[in-house]
Prior knowledge:
The protein is an alpha/beta fold. It is built from 5 helices and 8 strands, in the order H-E-H-E-E-H-E-H-E-E-E-H-E.
Amino acid sequence: MANHHLGKDELLAKLKDLGIDCITVEHPEVFTVEQALPHVSHLEGMFAKNLFMKDKKKKLWLLCAPYDADVKLNDLSKMVGAPGGLRFADESILFEKLGLTQGAVTIFGLINDKNHDVTLILDSRFIDSTYPRLYFHPMVNSASTGVTAEQLQTFLQHTGHKPSIVNLG
């Protein structure tokens, strides 16, 4: 039996069930942060850059950081102890593990990672309330959903993912 992955509507319902009062803004489909910015730059907060990666031993990693963070994969792999460095993982693995497609990578995909196969790497600014809201795609790249740092912690407690915190600022 194939895994059933939660989609946008199910995710938003789950966030509501968790008491997370989020803001969701619909916009045209975007595949890069640069394409998304004109549609979300009026919102108060920070839009996330999300990278789905694997290391040499095929361990899976999801990085969530401010869109303007300067991410150097070699440095990041040393920070988190990823053997052999980090590289982008295939879209087939992204869909299998998180129910996502390229362009729609999001921290919210962890809701589909029931076996905790993906290790979350989170920029420290996403947990210290640097920004009033953090914006991620809600499983699709045609919308952005904003939550507070506290609400993000509530979501991660629900999924059971304990992030590796890095400072990319």
